[in-house]
Amino acid sequence: MIRRLLRLVPPGTVPVGAGLALVGLASYVHLAVAGHTLTPGDYSSLSVLWSIVFTVGIGVFLPVEQEVARLVAARRTRDLPPGPVLARGATVAAAVLTLLVLAVTAATDTLAERLFDGNRAMVATLVGALVALALAHTTRGVLAGLGQFTWYGSQLGLDGGLRIGGVAALAAAGVDSPVAYALVLVAAPLLAVALTAPPVARAVGGGTPMPWPPLLRGLALLTVSSLLSQVVVNVGVINVRLLAPDDVATAGALLSALVLVRIPLFVFGSMQAALLPGLSTAAATDDEAAFGGLLRRALAVVTALGVGGGVLTVLLGPWLVHALFDAPAVLGRGDFAWLAVATLAYLWAMVLGQALLARDRHRAQAAAWTLGVAALAAATLAPLSVALRVELGYTVGSVVVTAVMLALLRRRRQSDPNPPVAVTLPATAPGGVR
């Protein structure tokens, strides 16, 4: 089954997959070193900042990367220069980044007091991390569209390697400041962008300015879906800090647990590069048998990943989070069971979301994630313990998204005079923890 899916893998998936693997490893090393070095309160602040960065940052800048990559790839097939797309994509990313920076700056005092124990430097670091993600995703879009997958994978790998080296240096120097460990999320991607800049620099300029509609068409809906999907998978840590500001142990332990249970999401990130083009091709040619067969096989693969990973984390999770991250013993096997079920449902939703995108149903995907976030919010208000409320929210939200997407996919497809065209894109890891 996996071999059949791998036959769909486009050139360059190996370096991209290797880069993703190193970024994933860096996440574990970063949090493990910080967990053993920082106090529970400081680790909780780092956990919240981590969750905000990868919820908001990936949610709003990954769609820019995908649209830039799609348009650059399309222009490349017609021997048109990529510069006009880069200019428009950079403008969009800069505009979104400006709005985020203004919002964070205006709420500096509130964010510092409610989320970071009054540490305003953590808010400044949050701004820096968002700037780094904006640059990284925009440049990766150009690299992907140009087919420069070795450079793309190298940027991911450099980001991961620099993170590992950075936290190792901090630990060796005896640094115990949460700001220092947070700054690694700023410095590593910025250096990775600089070291992989040559192909992007060569793409600057050339050609007539590109009209806005090709880039903006569908970008708003794609951004909504991307942002809400990151909310479902990441907001639990933030909610712990909002619902129980003094419960610093649970916030840090929950992020450590989520890092473990979401290992299958990194595997799906590599498989996604093959899945979307295959589904898009089948949808564009009205080959329902191929579409359904590929969708069923993809669901079978992620089910195996989710169940296998879930069983291991339920059995070993409480011990692993303490051994790897020095997390307090506040979560038991029952907590890991909820998180494992939620991650399995989230994996299903990610696969079904690709099926909706392949059918050019951006609005349907956005509607499903909107309903899922609404269900998450409702479940989080249940009169239960804080940990169980956020775990239940993650589970209910993911299950609702999956159910809605299944219902939407079962509807008879309306004829489309302009069927979607399959475009090969590398996939960054979904699920936010990177």
From TrEMBL:
Q: Where in the cell is it found?
A: Cell membrane
Q: Is DNA repair found in the keyword set?
A: no
**Annotated spans, Disordered:** 415-434
Give start-end positions of Low complexity composition bias: 421-434
Show the stretches that span the lipid bilayer.
12-31, 43-64, 85-107, 119-137, 179-198, 219-242, 298-321, 336-357, 366-386, 392-409
Give the keywords, sorted. Answer: Cell membrane, Membrane, Transmembrane, Transmembrane helix
Membrane topology term reads: Multi-pass membrane protein
Record bears the keyword Cell membrane: yes
Question: In terms of domain of life, where is this protein from?
Answer: Bacteria
**Protein name, UniProt field:** Membrane protein involved in the export of O-antigen and teichoic acid
